[in-house]
Design goal:
38% of the residues are buried. Helix content is 6%, strand content 39%. It has 203 residues and is mostly beta strands. The strands form two sheets. Strands 2, 3, 5, 6, 8, 9, 11, 12, 14, 16, 18 and 19 form a twelve-stranded parallel beta sheet that branches. Strands 1-4-7-10-13-15-17-20-21 form a nine-stranded mixed beta sheet, with no helix packed on it. The protein has a single domain, classed as UDP N-Acetylglucosamine Acyltransferase, domain 1, CATH 2.160.10.
């Protein structure tokens, strides 16, 4: 039977919660604009998550999306699609700026606590974005492991999580704490973050 709310019917047919269902996640989940947020019915969001306008979280087929307490998605459009694979987002920051995360065909994506993705980046599985690691700018990463470390606020860049930034494609890299790869029209080699912060203290 068709409801009196065509938007609800459209969302349900596409596998998403209705706007009222999204709004009902509050106050445990801080959904700042329920009418602009799309959440798949198989998506699991823990209390303490913040969802900005324009967030899309979708699990297709056997794909799952889990968003852990403390995660902040936005500001800026954040799209997460798990199609036959799993995406787990720890207490991390996705935004500001657009962020897209795609996991397909058992190529999972794990984003660990304190990580930050921002500025138009695309992360495709398989990918592990370690604790404190960053993906910044209009860069596309796939088949990457960014080693964990301290977050970006730590004074010693040698101890921070790995960083990929800039533009272009970065595929197949394995970085440790304190490493950085800067993508331009061509990918440069692995550098140490200290090279970009030579006067930073050592701890």
């Amino acid at each position: 039977m068709t409801s009196a709310r065509p938007l609800d019917d459209a969302r349900l047919a596409a596998g998403f919660l209705t706007p009222d269902d999204v709004a009902a996640l509050a106050p445990d989940v801080l959904v700042l604009d329920p009418s602009s947020v799309l959440i798949g019915r198989s998506v699991r969001i823990e209390p303490g998550v913040v969802l900005y306008p324009g967030t899309v979280l979708e699990g297709r087929g056997t794909g799952t999306v889990v968003v852990r307490s403390g995660a902040r998605l936005g500001p800026g459009p954040v799209t997460v699609v798990a199609d036959g694979a799993d995406v787990e987002i720890g207490p991390a920051e996705l935004g500001p700026g657009s962020v897209t995360v795609v996991a397909t065909d058992a190529a999972d994506v794990v984003i660990e606590p304190g990580a930050r993705l921002s500025g138009g980046c695309l992360v495709e599985g398989p990918a592990t974005i370690g604790a404190g690691a960053q993906v910044i700018g209009t860069v596309s990463v796939r088949d990457v492991v960014l080693g964990g470390g301290a977050d970006r606020h730590h004074p010693d860049p040698d101890r921070r999580g790995a960083v990929v930034k800039g533009a272009g494609r970065i595929h197949g890299v394995r970085l440790g704490a304190g490493d950085v790869v800067v993508g331009r029209t061509e990918v440069s080699g692995v550098e140490r973050q200290r090279a970009h912060h030579p006067d930073a203290p050592r701890r």
